[in-house]
Amino acid sequence: MRYAVLVTGPAGAGKSTFSGALMTHLATSKRTAHLVNLDPAASPDSFEYAPSIDIKDLISLDDVMSELGYGPNGGLVYCFEYLLRNMDWLEEELGDYDDDYLIIDCPGQIELYTHHPFLPTLVKNLNRLGLRTCAVYLLDSQFMEDKYKFFSGVLSAMSAMVNLEIPWINIMSKMDLVTSSSEDPAGGTQRYLEPDPLLLAAPRGQDDANSINPKFHALNQAIVQLIEDHPLVSFLPLDLTNPDSIESVLSNIDYTMQYGEDEEPKEPRDLDEGDFMDMELSSNELDKLQRTWRSFLKLKEHRASRLIDH
């Protein structure tokens, strides 16, 4: 079974940095992982690890803009349309990776996740190729400094979740930058990790924006009602300076994708066949292990014969 993690989120949320940190953590854990770049505008210097699969080997945004005269957004849309028309290229690139962890670094244009059909179509093709997929959506922790900006991020995450229809984890990135000034005194960061719609539900007259424009208050109330009716979004805090934080996020990703549940149990190694010869044991220790193992087998045979006699 192959596994793919789509790293999504708005520009500047730390997707490439998170992908690199996840690659490092997986390597430390003796797990095989490969980086896949799906951003045709990405600079090679932006990656800590060289991508094993790079969409720029198929098409790049610079080429589209120079040859077709498209702008950045139109060029990106064209690149993804071209990728979907050439899925055989991606299938061939993915063919060499079996039982591996693929970390797919996606572009930062939010419209690709919220309403364009490109990523949902890509996910369906990945599932067809036998990849078990999930997505992580990164939101910059600095959004918590402005509650209106934060809830726009919550709504974007909700829209992307509904659009992609795959197992999903929302991550509040750059938590190492959060200071006391970013926290709401009434509930701290927890009111943002588990979005509390009451942050927007300030009574009229107690909020500057609401008092200036009553329609703004009505809009806030509608958003509050939407979030209360559909409590889909919650965030895991991510502090890349803390290995335990990365491990917590990875554990949630593994659980979401049911990582390893389809793996066949490994056959126990046999002392008599020399499977333990590569262990760093002295000859005396190895002889002792083998004698113990043979004694165990004889005892097992003796007990079996006694059961037969009875």
Automatic annotation (TrEMBL):
Gene3D superfamilies (UniProt xref): P-loop containing nucleotide triphosphate hydrolases
Record has Glycosyltransferase as a keyword: no
Superkingdom classification of source: Eukaryota
Cited Pfam families: ATP_bind_1
GO terms of molecular function: GTP binding; GTPase activity
Entry-linked InterPro entries: Gpn, Gpn3, P-loop_NTPase
Family annotation (SUPFAM superfamilies): P-loop containing nucleoside triphosphate hydrolases
Keywords from the named record: GTP-binding, Hydrolase, Nucleotide-binding
Assembly: Heterodimers with GPN1 or GPN2. Binds to RNA polymerase II (RNAPII).
Function recorded in the entry: Small GTPase required for proper nuclear import of RNA polymerase II and III (RNAPII and RNAPIII). May act at an RNAP assembly step prior to nuclear import.
Recorded family membership: Belongs to the GPN-loop GTPase family.
Descriptive protein name: GPN-loop GTPase 3
Organism: Bondarzewia mesenterica
